Amino acid sequence: MASSREAASIGRFDYIIVGAGSGGCVLANRLSAIPNARVLLLEAGGSDNRLWVHVPVGYLYTMGNRAVDWCFKTEPEPGLNGRSLDYPRGKVLGGCSSINGMIYMRGQARDYDVWRQMGNPGWGWDDVLPYFLKSERHYGPADAYHGVAGELRVEQQRLQWPVLDAVREAAAELGIPPTSDFNRGDNEGAGYFAVNQRNGIRWNARKAFLDPVRNRTTLRIETGAEVERILIDEGMATGIVFSKSGQTFRAEVSGEIVLAAGAIGTPKLLELSGVGAGAVLSQYGIAVKHELPGVGENLQDHLQIRTVFGVTGARTLNDVSAGWLGKLRIAADYALRRRGPMAMAPSQLGIFTRSSPHYDRANIEYHVQPLSLDAFGQPLHRFPALTVSVCNLRPESRGATHIRSNVAREPPKIQPNYLSTESDRVVAVDSIRHARKLMATERLRGYRPIELKPGPSITTEEQLARAAGDIATTIFHPVATARMGRDARAVVAPDLTVHGIAGLSIADASVMPTIPSGNTHAAVTMIAEKAADLIRARRRD
Predict the structure, then answer these.
(1) Half-sphere exposure of 454 toward its Cβ, with a 13 Å CA cutoff?
(2) Any idea what DSSP says for residue 381?
(3) Where is the Glucose-methanol-choline oxidoreductase N-terminal domain (predicted)?
(4) For 173-192, how does the pLDDT look when each residue is reduced to its tens digit (9 = 90+)?
């Protein structure tokens, strides 16, 4: 590794943003609007100009593709019966917004009110709602909950599956009301997810926020630039060192360095730079620049229990796509109308409800899909079936991510510790039972559902808990590894500045104190919007 003195300088900038994902693209847009500011945006990946990034069903081909995905893996998980999971993270312009499920979901108002109650003023629902609205270009009319002038397109899905309509009606039998909008502060109900698309094409953060400002003289974008460490001198961040095309460079900063590398990338970079728990850093010969024991800790993620039911008399993607004729029809529908299965988000129908009366608000989320397969990347089954996934919205299990060496290119350790608490195991068992109850409703009887996973013979608490560990997988929502707060384990203050390091802030999913009750992309966009205002307020002209 080259020293900072050996690295060639590319100059001094007012702001250096690390990561051109959901948060970094927003920050680049907003900060480069400052007159005479010099903004540097660094992205380890390359261009997102790839067919399967933009065709919605292409998530099947981007996750696990090293051209656009870091291709991380978890450590073996005791709660998953020793399994290690693939852990996709975007390594491309747009970051995870270029490979994610495109679902636009804010969570629940209470999520953000809890953040405020945890000692983070300015982060309650009423505080953050204006930032959600600022970015949004919603398909409906503007109102108190939706904006129509922002850059992030939010549209309805361009498909129709009668069997999913039936599942939505079946949910009503269980007392779960239909809803046309999950984003008004209380997402309890059943309905179709809104998606970040434009006319059936993925609308990622690059298209939304970066393209409109690419030609600004205040913005410099470097792709293929992997940041190795932050330069810190006497408690102040002074620049960064990055590698590109086999060479090492450095950039100095006069304002702030903003980390937007995500809940895995940000703690890794902090630790490589000497910021973290001394016990972790000393293992790899890294000098402690600043002791912050919370770096990499508090990892939270959504784990989905993927139950599968075979059905009869229903049209599903399994049978629609069978054979070359079916595939040609699907391709033609998309080519001519931008509709049909190729326009599908990974999940179409959502249900938010309570796994038991113990909860006073929705604590589980369904992702119902008109398809089934053994695992992502595997072929669809040859028979009609539904995948009825259920996840615990607010898990109590806490994991960690830390470096495994002092080499920047070495992937980090990721240990989510799924199902490590009794309450999470109870919710997992209850989730399987709830899915069975849904599929046993009168509305679905005509489809004669047959449980394939985990299987009807699995009935006892012990069997169900083990089955959950066998069939569960991540929904790719890691957060909270550099959480905000004022206590000794917090990494950033409520203004998103890193405790004890001047000129360094974070604006990505890592700062969340707790995981939102839903998908996380919209929340990261909101955090970056608010961060941009906070950073501008600190600016000294």
Answers:
(1) 22
(2) P
(3) 262-276
(4) 999 999 999 999 999 999 99
Q: Which of 128, 133, 127 is nearest to 146 (CA)?
A: 133
d(CA 257, CA 16): 5
Binding-site residue positions for FAD? 92, 227
Of all residues in the chain, the percent with pLDDT exceeding 90 is 91
Compute the average pLDDT of residues 113-128. 98
Q: Is 472 within 8 Å of 432 (Cβ atoms)?
A: no
In three-state secondary structure terms, 39 is strand
Burial (Cβ within 10 Å: 0-12, 13-18, ≥19) of residue 185: middle
Q: How far apart are CA 509 and CA 477, in angstroms?
A: 9
| 158-192+303-392+418-477 is a CATH 3.30.410.40 domain | yes
Q: Domain spans of the chain?
A: 1-153+196-301+398-416+479-541, 158-192+303-392+418-477
Binding positions: 92, 227
Phi and psi angles of residue 103, each rounded to the nearest 5 degrees, phi first: -75, 130
Q: Which amino acid is at 269?
A: L
**Per-residue pLDDT at 183:** 98
CA distances to 190, 350, 426 from 176, in Å: 7, 11, 21
Q: Return the SS3 of 319.
A: helix
The catalytic residues are 477
- Sign of the alpha-carbon dihedral angle for 153, 154, 156, 157: positive
Cα separation, 538 vs 158, in Å, equals 43
- As a whole number of angstroms, the distance between CA 478 and CA 301 comes to 5
